[in-house]
Amino acid sequence: MKNILIVDDEAEIVELLKVYLENHDFYVLEAYDGEKALSLLEKNRVDAMILDIMMPKMNGIELIKKIRRKSNIPVIFLSAKDEDIDKIYGLGLGADDYMTKPFNPLEVVARLKSLIRRIYHYNKDEGVMEKIHIGDLCLEEKNTQVYKKGEILDLTAMEYKLLQFLMKNSNRVFTKKQLYESIWEQNFIGDDNIIMVYISKLREKIEHDSKKPDYLKTIRGLGYRFEGNIQNEG
């Protein structure tokens, strides 16, 4: 699941886009000004942004300048300005696409999906990334292999599936129920031992010290989180 940050000072637009994006299996974060957006970017994994230009506190132009100093995250600009010079200026600042208001939300979703496929090197199988790099781990979805410091890890099918899910959704907390129903695709009946066993097995294989994990963290009272940011190749 990809995390999308919508930044717009018009609540109606944010809510409209949120409904459409969630219906297409995106996880949505919301900000109504540039300062809040920067704060969310620092605390969350964000895979792409939909960004308004005219906003209070920090406008979209100032925000994308700050973002581009640190990140190549995909950005779609939204603007009421429809002159070619405005589009050229926005794209020149580092936006990956530019749409004018009013817009068709389905077109926004379509452009976002296309952008994500291009940026994250999706192969012909929808939703499959070629490689996921986090720290010294590399998961290759094409051949279902995981490497640690270049050496292949011996994972069972379910260990691989669990690790794949966690790495693709890094920095998000999942309950045992959410993990079970996502990985095993069955209703959770309250027995959390199976999740604990698989988490323990994964830690033994991916961590430097399984008792002091760097990646697979237990969030007391909530569940588990895989910590680390997906690294862009090159």
UniProtKB/TrEMBL annotation:
Domain OmpR/PhoB-type, residue spans: 129-228
InterPro entries listed in its UniProt record: CheY-like_superfamily, OmpR/PhoB-type_DNA-bd, Sig_transdc_resp-reg_C-effctor, Sig_transdc_resp-reg_receiver, WalR-like, WH-like_DNA-bd_sf
Any one annotated GO CC term: protein-DNA complex
DNA-binding region per Swiss-Prot/TrEMBL record: 129-228
Ranges of residues in domain Response regulatory: 3-116
Gene3D superfamilies assigned to the protein according to its UniProt record, in alphabetical order: 3.40.50.2300, 6.10.250.690, Winged helix-like DNA-binding domain superfamily/Winged helix DNA-binding domain
Record GO terms (molecular function): phosphorelay response regulator activity; transcription cis-regulatory region binding
GO annotation, biological process: regulation of DNA-templated transcription
Domain of life: Bacteria
Keyword terms: DNA-binding, Phosphoprotein, Transcription, Transcription regulation, Two-component regulatory system
Location of 4-aspartylphosphate modifications: 52
Purpose: May play the central regulatory role in sporulation. It may be an element of the effector pathway responsible for the activation of sporulation genes in response to nutritional stress. Spo0A may act in concert with spo0H (a sigma factor) to control the expression of some genes that are critical to the sporulation process.
PANTHER family referenced in this protein's UniProt entry, alphabetically: PHOSPHATE REGULON TRANSCRIPTIONAL REGULATORY PROTEIN PHOB (PTHR48111:SF40), REGULATOR OF RPOS (PTHR48111)
Protein name, UniProt field: Stage 0 sporulation protein A homolog
Organism per entry: Marinisporobacter balticus
